[in-house]
Amino acid sequence: MIYTDMEHLGTYRGIAPALDTAIAYLQEHGVGGLTAGRNEVDGDNVFINRFAYTTMPEAETAFEAHRRYLDIHLVVEGEELIGIAPIGTMTVTGEDVENDGIDCTGETEAWLPMAPGKVLIAFPEDAHRVKIQKNDPCHVEKAVVKVLIER
Fold it and tell me: If DSSP codes are grouped into helix, strand and coil, which group holds residue 147?
């Protein structure tokens, strides 16, 4: 997991070629001009999903993880908390291989406050639970960059 500010994102170049592509795109274009749904960057290697939701109490959220993709979480508007824990500490409750989704349960190890300008990079070993309200429910506009990572 990497938790940083957008202004420091370039520091993380060199980890993987597709991550470099994602970082270059974000530094050049940002996320403000993205349309709702899937936004193409480099085919299935790098793409960005833009969506909106209202945050909710932690008890109404669930952990997820991925095998093939890392996620770069960026809040465009609003604020949320993201809980994170190592996938090895989780109990897997389901898997959607086609959509690279792993459902799991377990204890949160760290809480990360997300607001515009913050960046969370969740690698395949990082189970994460999103959409958690910080105080009260809040409308969130969000972008998640999906980056194919070879392991």
Answer: strand
